[in-house]
Design brief:
It is globular, with a radius of gyration of 18 Å. It is built from 7 helices and 7 strands. The model has no long low-confidence stretch (mean pLDDT 94). It has a 7-stranded mixed beta sheet, sandwiched between helices. The longest helix is centred in the middle third of the chain and has 16 residues, at 114-129. The protein is α/β, with parallel strands linked by helices.
């Protein structure tokens, strides 16, 4: 656990390594821009085929150091059993009130992994409940203003609302991902093969970043979806950003 005071940005994902696989470049970029960043892993990843929760915890701290996070916490909810219920909402409300972030990042509800889709729903409801003064008064934490929520896009069927140019952070992003050595390809490993431990998986992550980068005319990108309408002060400045009219 790395702890800090209030955060500007909190990324909430189901398992240790989810935040890195989906938005490590964005977290690195936000840190360079001066924002206080954190990650909350909802579970310890104890249902994982490879490694152990203890190994994943050490790897998460190593990755946090690479990302320069101001906070990393694990909420220790049950891996493989995440569901929108009173317990999960209360646990997430308390972490939101503890760190009081302005912006939340989480998974998208149209994700094929049940934990990921459940996490998106838990975070959306908890964010709203955290603004209600009388909800979970026994927790002893003050209500917060409603944070903005952006969902990391994984499915090709979800059209991103925006893509972050992370070209300058591609190498360090992969370094943060590779901190989870127990989960990825190792020729000497004796554990069963999984999708993410296949030899070509990390190359797919790099190719995916290049694909989304190509949609905005840059080398590497990370896509996000926002359900709410975005409030834009200067549409000319926004539309003059690099883009690919053939995407």
């Amino acid at each position: 656990m790395i702890d800090a005071a209030e955060l500007d940005v909190l990324a909430l994902f189901s398992h240790p390594d989810d935040a890195e696989l989906t938005m490590a470049g964005t977290l690195l970029k936000l840190k360079l821009l001066g924002y206080r960043t954190g990650v909350a892993d909802l579970t310890r990843g104890e249902m994982g085929t490879r490694g152990t929760p203890e190994i994943r915890a050490r790897e998460a701290l190593d990755a946090a150091g690479i990302l320069g996070l101001d906070a990393r916490v694990n909420l220790e909810l049950p891996d493989g059993h995440l569901a929108l219920n009173e317990e999960t909402r209360r646990v997430v409300v308390r972490v939101l009130r503890r760190y009081r972030p302005k912006v939340l990042f989480t998974s998208h509800w149209d994700d094929p992994h049940p934990d990921h889709s459940a996490t998106a729903r838990i975070v959306r409801e908890a964010a709203r409940l955290a603004t209600m003064r009388r909800f979970d008064e026994e927790g002893g934490l003050k209500w917060i203003k409603m944070p903005a929520i952006a969902h990391a896009v994984y499915s090709r069927l979800v059209l991103p609302s925006f893509i972050v140019d992370v070209s300058n952070f591609a190498e360090k992003k992969m370094e943060a991902i590779r901190a989870y050595a127990s989960q990825f390809y190792r020729p000497e490993a004796k554990e069963p093969l999984t999708r993410i431990s296949e030899q070509g998986f990390l190359r797919q992550i790099e190719d995916r970043a290049r694909y989304y980068g190509s949609l905005i005319g840059v080398a590497d990108g990370e896509p996000f979806y926002v359900r709410e309408a975005l409030n834009v002060d200067d549409p000319i400045s926004l539309l003059m950003r690099p883009m690919n009219i053939y995407s």
